[in-house]
């Protein structure tokens, strides 16, 4: 039973005499392999977590071999006798955002700053009660309707499409076939579809407020000192590093006295991207400190 992934580069991605630049080809192959690795990890473990890497002993199970290169446009086929579940998982992750990208229309998305202000107001007026981190793990936020694996796979596909988003005449196609008896699913990306796909998987929402306890091990203003405020927070429940996003300078200054000190308790919101969140190490948005 042979599974197949077919990559077609067309339009302005193909130069004279059916040639493709090394830059475009290497980027395409690297992110296609990374997407396959993420799909394999999800199949192997039933889920995939942020920063999880494929171990070398599993490479053979996740590898696809170059089968043929065809001219006309530029077509490469990758095949694997053990890749059926990987290809099925890739299709499962791609089908929904691709449908959204090709359907057209814009979704109403509120900026994170607006969402932070709303969550703070809800807490101040006791309209919501923060849940414990343990409860979050056992009972995921209702906004999280997709497995984190979908987001992880589509993030790699999104990087694969960078050359297409940059060029109005570029075309890239992915054809997936899980075995000889399955139909072929084809995803065609023009610049318009590639940009819409990026928007689909980049929607960010703040989940229900959660109580986190841990140590603040770093704070960073970022390159631009007026925005991109972040911290690194060690969750004492699972000893995992979490990126702590900070909205304002005032919030940042509240946290400074706790840097590299004893553990503190904060309220933060999971940052839910494309309706998915990794509860073990996903990014969170700082809301307030709980003072005893």
List the main descriptive attributes of the protein structure presented here:
5-stranded antiparallel sheet, CYTH domain-containing protein, 2 domains, about 30% strand, about 290 residues
Describe the structure.
- The chain is elongated, with a radius of gyration of 22 Å.
- It contains nine helices and twelve strands.
- The protein has helices at residues 22-45, 59-62, 84-103, 112-124, 133-138, 148-160, 162-165, 191-201, 249-255; strands at residues 3-11, 65-70, 74-80, 131-132, 170-177, 185-189, 204-206, 210-220, 229-235, 240-246, 264-273, 284-290.
- It folds into two domains: 3-105 and 146-201, no CATH class; 112-143 and 204-290, OB fold (Dihydrolipoamide Acetyltransferase, E2P), CATH 2.40.50.
- It is an alpha+beta fold and 292 residues long.
- The model has no long low-confidence stretch (mean pLDDT 90).
- The longest helix is centred in the first third of the chain and has 24 residues, at 22-45.
- β9 (229-235) and β10 (240-246) form a beta hairpin.
- A five-stranded antiparallel β-sheet has the order 2-3-1-5-6. Strands 8-9-10-12-11 form a five-stranded mixed barrel.
- It comes from Herbaspirillum robiniae.
- This is CYTH domain-containing protein.
């Amino acid at each position: 039973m042979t599974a197949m992934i077919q990559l077609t580069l067309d339009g302005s991605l193909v130069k004279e005499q059916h040639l493709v630049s090394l830059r475009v080809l290497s980027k395409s192959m690297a992110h296609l392999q990374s997407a396959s690795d993420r799909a394999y990890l999800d199949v192997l473990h039933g889920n995939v977590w942020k920063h999880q890497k494929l171990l070398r002993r599993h490479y053979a199970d996740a590898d696809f071999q170059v089968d043929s290169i065809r001219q006309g446009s530029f077509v490469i086929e990758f095949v694997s006798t053990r890749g059926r579940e990987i290809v099925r998982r890739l299709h499962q992750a791609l089908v929904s955002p691709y449908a959204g990208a090709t359907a057209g229309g814009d979704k109403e998305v509120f900026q994170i700053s607006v969402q932070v202000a709303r969550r703070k107001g809800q807490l101040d007026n006791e309209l919501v009660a923060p849940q414990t981190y343990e409860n979050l793990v056992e009972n995921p936020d209702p906004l999280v309707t997709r497995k984190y694996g979908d987001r992880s796979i589509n993030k790699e596909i999104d990087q694969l499409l960078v050359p297409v988003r940059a060029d109005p005449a570029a075309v890239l196609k992915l054809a997936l076939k899980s075995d000889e008896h399955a139909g072929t699913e084809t995803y065609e990306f023009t610049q318009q579809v590639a940009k819409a796909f990026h928007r689909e998987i980049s929607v960010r929402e703040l989940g229900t407020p959660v109580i986190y306890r841990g140590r603040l091990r770093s704070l960073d203003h970022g390159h631009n000192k007026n925005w991109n405020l972040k911290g690194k927070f060690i969750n004492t429940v699972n000893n995992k590093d979490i990126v702590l996003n900070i909205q304002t300078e005032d919030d940042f200054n509240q946290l400074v006295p706790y840097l590299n000190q004893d553990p503190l308790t904060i309220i933060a919101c999971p940052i839910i991207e494309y309706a998915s969140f990794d509860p073990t190490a996903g990014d969170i948005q700082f809301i307030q400190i709980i003072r005893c």
